[in-house]
Amino acid sequence: MGVEVRVEGLTKSFGGQLIWRDVTLTLPEGEINVMLGPSGTGKSVFLKCLVGLLKPDKGHIYIEGNDVATCSERKLYEIRKLFGVLFQDGALFGSMNLYDNVAFPLREHTKKSESEVRRIVMEKIDMVGLQGAETKLPGEISGGMRKRAGLARALVLDPEIMLLDEPDSGLDPVRTAFLNQLIVDLSQDTGATFLIVTHDINTARTVPDNIGLLYHRHLAMFGPREMLLSSEQPVVRQFLNAQRFGPIGMAEEKDADELAAEAAAGVELPPLPPIPLQLTPSDGYARDTQRPPGEWCATYGIAPPPGSFQPTVTAGAMS
Length: 319
Hints:
- InterPro entries: AAA+_ATPase, ABC_transporter-like_ATP-bd, ABC_transporter-like_CS, P-loop_NTPase.
- This is ABC transporter ATP-binding protein.
- By secondary structure, the protein is α/β, with parallel strands linked by helices.
- The chain has a single domain (5-231), classed as P-loop containing nucleotide triphosphate hydrolases (Rossmann fold).
- 34% of the residues lie in helices and 19% in strands.
- The N and C termini lie far apart (43 Å).
């Protein structure tokens, strides 16, 4: 099962460059969380702070009563065993086949026999749909298969917290859809707490239980997905609609002159797209963490965008 991750007042800078300030949020145990934000806003830096690879300037990260930001190296070594991490490029060893890549954490951190290692490795390879590819080298397979192999390796120690750094980068929409379904199925099967950094809007709209948005050196919003997907904040509307117009610029935020020019020209952001139904596990049953569609909006008196929470009609169903 997953564990709760509680972040309080986290601030990080590199030299005189502030990355973000006073980030506070809680990743509920066993839920899928997504972190959005324009490029360069420090989403990957946030992941590295959670796992203790980078130390924040201020703030706390509490996991099972331990503060990752201030604990000893010995305690941090133990805490890291709770994590599984999928890096952007899979980070596989190019000279090892997929089997040995997945087996590496078991051989490095446990004293299991090779027969037990083989049982666990083949179980994880099967979970991510790579049966029969275990003898291939990373250079002999597609980018999507490398991502799944990296995911199998991240799962091999049965982590309670899964960090996925842009798992969909470099994948076409079809492979991204398969990967999203795999993540939902793994979440249901393992009960781990997931945090996914992504730029893919469809992933953010259908996969998570909770969504956050990093922007302008702070956490603009974090909470149940319906909260963000129904938000009228200009930065949210611009990001979800993938529009040039709004507070986000090419570098990061636009200056006052640019925003004034857009306002003078009468430029308006389009309305928010409908909130889709949440992606369910492959077995068709609701997730253990799933909230009834529209519950958050109804509780807080928020009118969701028109057409929200309607089933998707496929081409096959229409014919």
